[in-house]
């Protein structure tokens, strides 16, 4: 594990990353989802894709990458892009799980790999809508301690700046970014995913012009049990 210090838009970051197969000539970069970290991706994929230099990154605010700022997805992409420049990365492949898929898309790699990616807005349940409604009321009344009770499990242990960051990114519609992405895309999905639905995955595939779509029996972390097959499909499907 290593750390790079970098500055983006006058904001300073220490980004934690780990490299596997350091002498390989082509790169595959792995970006985890919200509330996760690089170790989850490394534990799953490091045994495979031996011809690639693997770069596993903790996004700011997760794992061992601290974050003291309120960020947007575009800022996340700028931060990771700066890190990749420092690592002399060729961005041959960027694989993103869930929220990491949105960041990966903005980085415009030669080959985009999406693992149950976020980015397609889905209809909220009545319970979620009710929580948002009451949270707004309590927030307007200055009762922030009460508002915390309505927060998502993904963020209930986050700092205030990361919670505000979460609010910035959670309802983004990335349809136009997927439509405008013109490079090669490989999309993998869990058929029982309740965080990002299979329907969203199929819509994403229809928006990405040069894409292939593969689904597996599994939930939002389906790739943990299917890493070998996914890795083989990546090797056979990249341009």
UniProtKB/TrEMBL annotation:
Domain of life, source organism: Bacteria
GO molecular function terms attached to this record: hydrolase activity
Matches recorded under Gene3D superfamilies: alpha/beta hydrolase (3.40.50.1820)
PANTHER family linked: AB HYDROLASE SUPERFAMILY PROTEIN YCLE, MONOACYLGLYCEROL LIPASE
SUPFAM superfamilies the record matches: alpha/beta-Hydrolases
Keyword Hydrolase: yes
Ranges of residues in domain AB hydrolase-1: 28-152
Entry keyword set: Hydrolase
Signal peptide location: none
Protein name: 2-hydroxy-6-oxohepta-2,4-dienoate hydrolase
GO cellular component: membrane
UniProt xrefs under InterPro entries: AB_hydrolase_1, AB_hydrolase_fold, AB_hydrolase_sf
